[in-house]
Design a protein that fits this description.
With about 600 residues, the chain is mainly α. The chain has three domains: about 170 residues, no CATH class; about 230 residues, no CATH class; about 120 residues, no CATH class.
Length: about 600
């Protein structure tokens, strides 16, 4: 740009006219792109709503928020692209010359002003006057109107209605999404709690550097786990529990160290308080070790030989007690006692001053450890509360899921009872699942059912009590039979139908299609089952039949007295144990991390399963 361009007064006038036209054109472009931007944002919102109906993702309020954010982002992009796209002044002038039919007057005037075209002053003056006259008469609104594109705005209205319909209609995943959002919010709060704890520990001046780094590293690892996008509640609870355990352990260790140091210092102070000179002071029982050493140093000048010997012995005893909390202070106190025995009172006072300083440092360190332990205990409580919230939220979701499952099943016909009411292969009806199953009328039990019959009282391979509990009676058996029906449903889902009765409840021999070790079909190994003793269910006593033989009665002790046997084939009692395990797994008694292990273990023991 030449000096003439800067100094000529007409240049600023032409430049302002072109810029005014440029602003009008950019405003029209912004008005044209507004409905198109809204269409893009609404399409994004509709896509999110459709995905949220196919799988749990976002709630209606979150969909609206996401659509609004998409609209703002699209508008920002369009605004920046339209208003900040670089355009030179001469290019704009040429474009408006064609649009306004100015026949290159504006662009020629600019070229004359910047020196791109050379002309004499008279011709240049005529050109500028003609350009300014024609440009001032132009009305940009006539050539660049703000048009309302009804088709595009109609599409915006249609898409907005579609999005509103998708948001207002009930979503089957709404409750699941809400639960997942609440769970994620709880996990985020737990992560924020750990971050607050991390900041507190980093700013704690009383904590040792090594211990602080160890705690900070563990907390950062737990926070990294909580920040993972696809973390499960179990993983989050494990991470928070790990941080809480680390904080609790460190707090307990510091608390123990502080108590040990304070006990050592108190014992050393008690050893010095036994001196007669200190006992005369009524405040001596309330003084710390450093204060007791200071009092002893002040009174040492007036000691006689007997008092110096007593003080030296007391110092040696105090040094032994102080060895654990402050070895340097104990050594200084021991040196003071030796010098006092040698009559060097001044040297003993100097050593007592050093011991006093070491004792004061030990007392401050013990107090700092106690403060750190208290702070770590509070942080551990915060982490424990965060973990409890995660566990509570998870338990609430599981309870809601079970309730929904029960409600869904309550509307379906009870096919199990219908199936059990069908005639069996023997021609007799089977007993429903909520009653005791036993031998059918006219059916003779085989050898195996005869073995279990005395303890089962008509039951097949399943009893209505837990493996280790006492026999149930009357209505208790019916209630336990109902509870076993739900427990068997859990066990029967695994391969091998562990929840079914495999002991031949109808007098049939058990399924011998067992090959657990690849060695062929064999009998089930007997196991200990004390609940299979003789007698009807509910009886508390076992009566033995009298001996009908004519053998004479012999009194005395017998070394070869045979022992009885309560073992039965384990396939006959496996269901009892499996039902007890299922009830424990459904409750909160078994930890989450061990449930799969317990389930896999009993699945491997199931009759008919092949060992790996």
């Amino acid at each position: 740009m030449t000096t003439q361009t800067v100094t000529h007064p007409s240049y600023a006038v032409v430049r302002n006219i072109v810029r005014r036209w440029e602003r009008r054109q950019r405003l029209g472009q912004m008005f044209d792109w507004l409905p198109r931007t809204l269409v893009i944002a609404l399409l994004i919102g509709i896509g999110i709503a459709l995905v949220s109906r196919m799988r749990p993702w976002l709630l209606p309020g979150q969909i609206i928020l996401a659509t609004g954010i998409a609209a703002v982002v699209c508008l920002a992009v369009i605004y920046l692209a339209i208003w900040f796209w670089p355009r030179t002044l001469i290019e704009s002038a040429r474009r408006f010359d064609r649009l306004f039919q100015l026949k290159e007057r504006t662009s020629t005037a600019l070229e004359l002003l910047v020196g791109s075209i050379h002309a004499n002053d008279e011709l240049m003056t005529y050109q500028l006057e003609d350009t300014l006259a024609r440009a001032s008469a132009i009305r940009p609104a006539s050539y660049l109107p703000l048009q309302m594109r009804w088709r595009e705005w109609g599409l915006v209205a249609l898409l907005a209605a579609s999005l509103a319909l998708l948001i207002l209609l009930p979503n089957v995943f709404a409750e699941t999404i809400s639960d997942n959002s609440a769970q994620q919010e709880t996990i985020d709060e737990a992560a924020e709690t750990l971050r607050d704890i991390t900041r507190d520990l980093a700013a704690d001046p009383t904590l040792e550097n090594e211990r602080r780094e160890q705690l900070l590293e563990a907390l950062r690892a737990s926070i990294a786990i909580l920040d993972e996008p696809d973390i499960t509640p179990e993983e989050a609870l494990a991470a928070v529990s790990s941080a809480e355990a680390m904080l609790s352990d460190q707090a307990s260790e510091l608390r123990q160290q502080s108590r040990s140091a304070q006990s050592s210092l108190e014992a050393a102070a008690d050893a010095l308080r036994d001196l007669q000179s200190l006992n005369n002071d009524p405040q001596s029982s309330q003084q710390s070790l450093s204060q007791t050493l200071e009092s002893l140093s002040q009174q040492m000048q007036g000691f006689n030989d007997s008092q110096r010997q007593s003080a030296a012995n007391a110092m040696n005893n105090a040094a032994q007690q102080m060895e654990q909390s402050s070895p340097a202070g104990a050594e200084a106190l021991r040196q003071a006692g030796q010098q006092l025995q040698q009559g060097d009172t001044q040297g003993a006072q100097q050593q007592l001053q050093q011991a006093q300083q070491q004792a004061q440092q030990a007392e401050q360190q013990a107090q700092a450890q106690q403060n750190s332990a208290q702070q770590l205990g509070e942080n551990a409580n915060q982490a424990q509360e965060a973990g409890a919230q995660i566990s509570q939220q998870q338990s609430s979701q599981q309870a809601q899921g079970q309730q929904q499952t029960q409600q869904a099943q309550s509307g379906a016909p009870n096919t199990s009872n219908n199936a059990q009411s069908q005639p069996n292969s023997q021609g007799g009806p089977q007993v429903p699942s909520n009653s005791q199953s036993g031998s059918q009328p006219g059916q003779q039990p085989d050898a195996q059912s005869a073995q279990s019959q005395p303890g089962e009282s008509g039951q097949g391979g399943m009893q209505s009590q837990s493996p280790s509990g006492p026999p149930a009676s009357g209505g208790q058996q019916s209630e336990q039979g109902n509870s076993q029906g739900s427990a068997q449903a859990g066990a029967g889902d695994t391969p091998g139908n562990a929840g079914q009765d495999t002991s031949g409840s109808q007098g049939q021999p058990p399924d011998q299609n067992n090959n657990p070790d690849g060695g062929g079909v064999r009998d089930f190994e007997p196991i200990y089952a004390p609940s299979r003793l003789g007698g009807e269910p509910g009886e508390d006593t076992v009566e033995l039949e009298p001996d009908a033989s004519q053998m004479p009665v012999i009194e005395g002790e017998f070394a070869q007295n045979p022992t009885g046997s309560t073992s039965v084939p384990y396939n006959q009692v496996f269901n009892d144990y499996a039902n007890a395990v299922n009830r424990a797994l459904e409750s909160d008694y078994v930890p989450l991390g061990l449930r799969d292990v317990v389930r896999d273990y009993f699945t491997g023991l199931e009759p008919g399963q092949r060992s790996p």
